[in-house]
Amino acid sequence: MVIIVAYYEFLKNLRDIRLFAILVIFPILTTLILGNAIGGYFSNDIKDKISVGYINEDAGDVGQAFNKFLANEELKKRMNVINYEDRNQGHIDLKAGKINSLIYLPSELSKNIVASKKQVIQISGSKDVEYAESIVSSFITSYNGVNALISVQGIPSDKDTISNIKRVFYNKTQVKLSATDYYAVLTLLQMLIVGAILGILITTKNYGSDIHIRIHSLPVNNLILILGKIIGSTLYLFLAAGINILFTKIVYGVNWNGNPLIIIGTILVYCSITIGIGVILGLLIPSFSTSLMIVMLMMIFFGTLSGAVSPANVNDNISFLIPNYHAKILLFGTIYGYSQEIMLNAALWLLGIMAFVYSIAAIFIRRVSYDNI
User: Fold this and answer.
1) Containing structural domain, residue 147
2) How far apart are CA 276 and CA 260, in angstroms?
3) 210 and 276 share a domain?
4) Residue 58 CB neighbour total at 10 angstroms
5) Which one of 10, 287, 334, 363 is CB 3.0 to 4.6 Å from 262, fit for a cystine?
6) Domain check: are 108 and 143 in the same one?
7) Same-domain pairing of 105 and 88
8) What's the predicted TM-score (pTM) here?
9) SS (H, E, C) the chain
């Protein structure tokens, strides 16, 4: 009976062309716009080379990887990198206008990262600092995935910013993460939050219609009916995600070359969480328009905290509470080779969030009553 209910719920949702267009077309267009906008830092429109000072006191793996990163031929076409052995000389040339910005890697960078301590790559300057920051950010995302232990600090200081963090800095330089690759994942996860509308429709009473009374008059257990609708809506949301992934991979060349089972499992669990959140909203809030407004706010809030606007918006102290954060780690992790510890931690968190959401939903579902029951 659950399968039958899920099947018809899936077909019903499939007929909603407008929602399907939002879930599929909007993230595809957003990925294209943001990917090209951020990638513009490396476009051919930059005619004059930018002079960037570079002080690397780190002799470890991170420092060596950054040296190789700056040796990229495409970067050489855009900027002149001046390597300074003396940090004071770099600041003197910066003040004299001989270089536009200055990048500094501290001597204990690699050592402290191995010890799981957050580190800072410092950037200073009064001109073209954004360009230098984009270069450092590109290195961070390609080396450590999206949420690096290294952060970018705009104003240099005498003391490094160090704080304990659970994740381990992990070498992923074999695969480069482009802006399009990054936003294809983040935008998809952000837009799937809109799918919570389907969960709202499962449990919201429509006082202008007796459809809920008629549905719940069927000789089917209430929990089985709702469970079937949740499964059907989850599969519908998963279909929209699958179409998005195939399109961005084929047309945009986005890297989705991770473990298919991990990608499928992550998207399914994430879609299930989204539907569950909608179910809770539908049970707690009588007004559909109010619930819809909350979903839109959640989409913006969750997306921003997970880095959908910029990786700089990610705050580990808050972001770990939202499903986007852990789904993102799992997707990037299987594509770019995160450590098993990181992957397992993210998977447990995502499953834990799903269990929590449906535990809350189950409590309220048991208390719901309909006019004919």
Assistant:
1) 46-153
2) 24
3) yes
4) 24
5) 334
6) yes
7) yes
8) 0.61
9) CHHHHHHHHHHHHHCCHHHHHHHHHHHHHHHHHHHHHHHHHHCCCCCCCEEEEEEECCCCHHHHHHHHHHCCHHHHHHEEEEECCCHHHHHHHHHHCCCCEEEEECCCHHHHHHCCECEEEEEEECCCHHHHHHHHHHHHHHHHCCCCCEEEECCCCCCCCCCECCCCCCCCCCCCCCHHHHHHHHHHHHHHHHHHHHHHHHHCCCCCCCHHHHHCCCCCCHHHHHHHHHHHHHHHHHHHHHHHHHHHHHHCCCCCCCCHHHHHHHHHHHHHHHHHHHHHHHHHCCCHHHHHHHHHHHHHHHHHHHCCCCHHHCCHHHHCCCHHHHHHHHHHHHHHCCCHHHHHHHHHHHHHHHHHHHHHHHHHHHHCCCCCC
Identify whether 166 is part of a domain: no
Last residue of a domain, one of 99, 120, 153: 153
Total domains, the chain: 2
Structure confidence by residue, pLDDT tens digits, 323-372: 999 999 899 888 877 767 778 989 999 999 999 999 999 888 776 654 43
3-26 tens-digit pLDDT = 888 887 888 888 887 777 778 787
Residue 355: CB atoms within 10 Å: 12
Query: CATH number of the domain that 114 lies in?
Result: 3.40.1710.10
Question: Is residue 92 located within the same domain as residue 124?
Answer: yes
Does residue 219 fall inside a structural domain?
yes
Please give the Cα distance from 41 to 43 (Å, whole number).
Answer: 6
